[in-house]
Amino acid sequence: MGARRTSSYLMDMDGVVVREDHLVPGADRFIARLVEAGRPFLILTNNSIYTARDLAARLADMGLDVPAECIWTSALATARFLNIQRPGGSAFVIGEAGLTTALHDVGYTLSERSPDYVVLGETRTYSFERITQAIRLIERGARFIATNPDPTGPAPEGPLPATGAVAAMISRATGVEPYFVGKPNPLMMRSALREIDAHSETTVMIGDRMDTDIVAGLEAGLATILVLSGITDRGAVGRFPFLPDRIVESVADLVDEITDAVGRTLGPDDVSP
């Protein structure tokens, strides 16, 4: 990363801050150091099922106190994008409360009759009836938006089909490809930057996946740090045609590098354990 100054931080949630149902060791110290230093940050997730408040409560249960305002989901990014494209529009939605709430909050109307958009998000209960309805609405002219391209999602029993897989089925039936808002689309990075009034030149993206987090940060002009606490291992990095600026074991390795607004590196006594 050279001499590039870092003022703001974007980071993926799963694999960076949490792993399954546990905090990544040191993630609490990392977040506490950011708060103490007054550094703006957002925790990002492609998961559109939950609201930011839901996710904040989940993190609190794990022992990490993060305000809902510091969490940015693909549902929020999608709602922001649609509100810019077509303010006060309407949408037929396949998804959960995270998506419907985000759309309501920007003034969108949920409609099953001639909507401006079909918006596909993630749900644990995809309905064949609603998928069929989405196909018919797209054929009649509704624009096709999907929150993220992830083909599968995790579950205790094994992978579940997710937004990307269902989007592929709808595309095959209609011949219409969706516009994916979430990572690796750099649009999600840029919407997150606007949310915390940050600039790409002084923001770092921390992620555990080369194919989503790191490439999205790279294409949005951010410095990038790959952590090895999630999906990508060190041996896999070289198979990609791009590289992160740095590779560290986890965010715990970055705690001592965070400075306050005047460039002072905080000591252990400055941050609550």
Walk me through what this model shows.
The protein contains nine helices and 15 strands. With about 270 residues, it is an alpha/beta fold. The chain folds into two domains: about 10-45 and about 185-270, 3-Layer(aba) Sandwich (Rossmann fold), CATH 3.40.50; about 75-180, HAD superfamily/HAD-like (Rossmann fold, 3-Layer(aba) Sandwich), CATH 3.40.50. Strands 5-4-1-13-14-15 form a six-stranded parallel sheet. It has a five-stranded parallel sheet with strand order 7-6-8-9-12, with helices on both faces. A two-stranded antiparallel sheet has the order 2-3. The longest helix has 12 residues, at about 75-85. The chain is globular.
In CATH, what is the homologous superfamily of the largest domain?
A: HAD superfamily/HAD-like
Q: Outline, from the CA principal axes?
A: globular
Low-confidence regions = 264-273
**From the alpha-carbon coordinates, what is the Rg to the nearest angstrom?**
19 Å
What structural category characterises the helix and strand content?
alpha/beta
Share of residues in strands: 15-25%
Task: Explain briefly what this protein structure is.
By secondary structure, this protein is α/β, with parallel strands linked by helices. It has helices at residues 27-37, 52-61, 74-85, 97-105, 128-139, 163-174, 186-195, 210-219, 234-237; strands at residues 8-12, 18-19, 22-23, 41-45, 71-73, 90-94, 109-110, 117-120, 143-146, 152-153, 160-161, 179-180, 203-207, 223-227, 246-248.
